[in-house]
Amino acid sequence: MDFQSTPRSPFSPRLPHPPLPTSTTTNTLGILSSHIFPSLTLHTTLSLAAYSAGRFTNRLDAKDLLWPSAFVGNVWYHGVVWPYMSGRGRGVWEFIREMGYGNKLILGGVTVWGCRLFWKVFWRVKGRERDDGRYERYREVIRRKKGKGDLEKAVEIDEGEVEREMWNKAFLGIFLPEAVVQSFVSLGWCGVGYSRSYGSFNHHDQGSIGDTKWVHGIAVGVFAAGLALEVLADSQLGRSKKKKKGKIVRDGVWSIVRHPNYLGDFLVHLSFPLMALADGVFNPIMFIGPMANYIFLRFIGGDKENEQYQMEKYKKEGAEKYEEYKEWKAEKNSFWPGIREVGNLWTWVVVGIGGLAAAGEFYICNSTYTIVDVN
Questions:
Q1: Does the N-terminal or the C-terminal CB of the chain have fewer CB atoms within 10 Å?
Q2: Is 110 helix (H, G, I), strand (E, B) or coil?
Q3: Where are the alpha helices (DSSP H) in 279-318?
Q4: Which residues lie across from 198 on neighbouring strands?
Q5: Helix (H), strand (E) at residue 237
Q6: pTM of the predicted protein model
Q7: Based on the number of CB atoms within 10 Å of its own CB, is 172 exposed (0-12), middle (13-18) or buried (19 or more)?
């Protein structure tokens, strides 16, 4: 077989290497056996640890700290630890240095995103004396069920009894389902660590990647726009809470959609399979990752859960704030920007950040990759 000829796929790196063997993780069964099952084991173990810590401290928001940190652990396990432990005979840092450029982007991207989010959640949890209001609702639901709808009986129910029942149900009802979701979300970076030996590329590879530069640029641009949206949303929310106590934040990136941080999170996760696509180790199943993340954020644990809690909270706080929230809901979309946001300055700020990152990546590819004739 002639390995010097140009690969057929426009997304395969043009290097003098044999094609990926069928036993690697780029086929569907390989991804399931090499990623889903180990990921499920990893995330279940971490969820059990978080559950134990949460039960010990009586803080259900321990799972919020697990969400970003578990993904960082997952990408390092699959990208570095597992290949290193497979006996390739190299040191860890030497292994990382020799890793393909696209793999480094994914490894670094997940790490930066996860560490930033963990730090933000850590200080949010540390600054509260008790559980997040969303999780206090779980206790209220249990109390009402025990009181069988009678508010007077519900108030008289022992607090310890409520806590025991909540924690007895929490692992199977909350922590374990999220571990399953995390296992599927991690499919978005399945290519990490597995392409290096079969045809990945980095700045020192002797090959042409002309057909993949624009894919790398788009991937980096999407990642940068998503991360910028998350950072801006968190910083603007923090400042507004100090200056406008009791007011709903509706300016800045919060004028684009009601949940800009969730939109940013989705864009970040969408960028990882795009990076794998540019690295020549793409499988369509990798898009299950960002889609699983979107479904969870949009319909299960993020958007839906937050909106239910906010509606109840603002209704209790007063008619004025409740009416303001209903007005905001009618005016702005929850997740996807409406067509009129094309005229929103903050939309273009985020798009501009992504565009600058994409242009920078394209420039790096043009200026630092060595393009040679492999024939």
A1: N
A2: helix
A3: 288-295, 303-317
A4: none
A5: helix 213-243
A6: 0.82
A7: exposed
Mean pLDDT of 283-305: 86
CA 222/CA 106 separation, integer angstroms: 13
Query: CB of 230 within 8 A of CB of 46?
Result: no
User: Which residues are registered as beta bridge partners of 206?
Assistant: 370
Per-domain residue ranges of the chain: 31-198, 206-375
What's the full length of the chain, in residues?
A: 375
Distance CA 324, CA 122 (A): 30
DSSP string over 243-285: HSTTPPP-SGGGGT-S-HHHHHHHHHHHHHHHHHHHTT---GG
Q: What is the 3-state secondary structure (H, E, C) of 15-36?
A: CCCCCCCCCCCCCHHHHHHHHH
- Token pair, residue 273, equals 């399979």
Closest CA relative to residue 286, chosen from 151, 187, 209, 165 = 187
Question: Is the pLDDT assigned to residue 358 strictly greater than 90?
Answer: yes
- Taking the C-alpha atoms of residue 81 and residue 75, their distance in angstroms, rounded to an integer, is 9
Residue 146 and residue 99 in contact, taking contact as beta carbons nearer than 8 Å = no
233 pLDDT higher than 80: yes
Among residues 284, 83, 309, which one has the least CA distance to residue 195?
A: 83
Q: Which two structure tokens, joined as six digits, stand for 312?
A: 């109840």
Residue type, 202: N
